[in-house]
Amino acid sequence: MAHTAMSGTGTTKKHDPLQTAVWRLRSRACWTDAAALLDRLAVTDAGAALQRASLLVERCLYTEQGWAEAEDALRTAEALAGDDDQRGAAACERGQLAYAATLLGVRDRADEARSALGRAAALIAPGAPGRALLDFRRGLIAENLSQSPQSARAAYRRAHAGATAHGDHLLLCFTWHHLAGLALLEGELAEARHGFAESLRLLEELGFLVGTAPALAALAQTEPEPEATRLHQEAGRLLRLLDGIPTRLAPLP
């Protein structure tokens, strides 16, 4: 089974019914239900265990809950990993979970996050599909933990190029968003508006509903009235629809 992590649509070229169901639940903030569909396979299948762990790690970022379940799932994935790609993907998820805990103020695990992503970098080959996601997550740490926008931009651009090469449209949503955020901080309003608009367009095309409210709120920062108010109102409507998830509109994980 393919490891989809945070990126990807969760579907396959053959439209595998299981992966389609997982994607639909995930995109509507139902990570626990999506992970449950993988429970049986994840006992022995390394790919399923990795995907299940990534779903539960993502839930932590969007809801600030479920840390123990994510840790348990990640330990299972780490134990089942049988080659460098799988070990690298597990290390990437370990880094993301530690990053999320630090970012959201649960516990300072910044050193663990950097160490885990460093292990992932040693295991995931340059040009491999998982490398783009790794680059993106290293950008998150540079931007939000190390306060190094220049390093973050370089990492996001590498991730953007990798996501483009591998057709990973969901990851492109996130790279567009974060590159636009850096542009906004530098006062490059037109560049920021373009990036946020591209991110929103892709999210809507993919049907990744849980990521749409933050994208709308971000784009609103670059638009004049009355468009800014309309975008904020739409973001609020989606938040109510999803029972307040994501719990924070920014930064988008």
How would you describe the shape?
A: globular
Average pLDDT, rounded to a whole number, is: 93
Q: What is the alpha-carbon Rg in Å?
A: 17 Å
CATH superfamily: Tetratricopeptide repeat domain
Instruction: Sketch the topology as an H/E string, one letter per element.
Output: HHHHHHHHHHHHH
Percent of residues in β-strands? under 5%
Supply the number of helical segments: 13
Biggest sheet details = none
Find the structural class using helix and strand composition: mainly alpha
Task: Please provide a written account of the structure.
This protein has 253 residues and is mainly α. It has one domain (17-241): Serine Threonine Protein Phosphatase 5, Tetratricopeptide repeat, CATH 1.25.40. The chain has 13 helices and no strands. The chain has helices at 17-27, 31-36, 39-42, 46-63, 67-80, 84-103, 110-123, 129-144, 149-166, 169-185, 189-206, 212-220, 227-241. α4 (46-63) packs antiparallel against α5 (67-80), α4 packs parallel to α6 and α10 (169-185) packs antiparallel against α11. It is globular, with a radius of gyration of 17 Å. It starts with 16 loop residues before the first helix and ends in a 12-residue tail after the last helix. The relative contact order is 0.10.
Secondary structure blueprint with pairings:
Blueprint: H1 17-27, H2 31-36, H3 39-42, H4 46-63, H5 67-80, H6 84-103, H7 110-123, H8 129-144, H9 149-166, H10 169-185, H11 189-206, H12 212-220, H13 227-241
Short description:
The chain is mainly alpha-helical and 253 residues long.
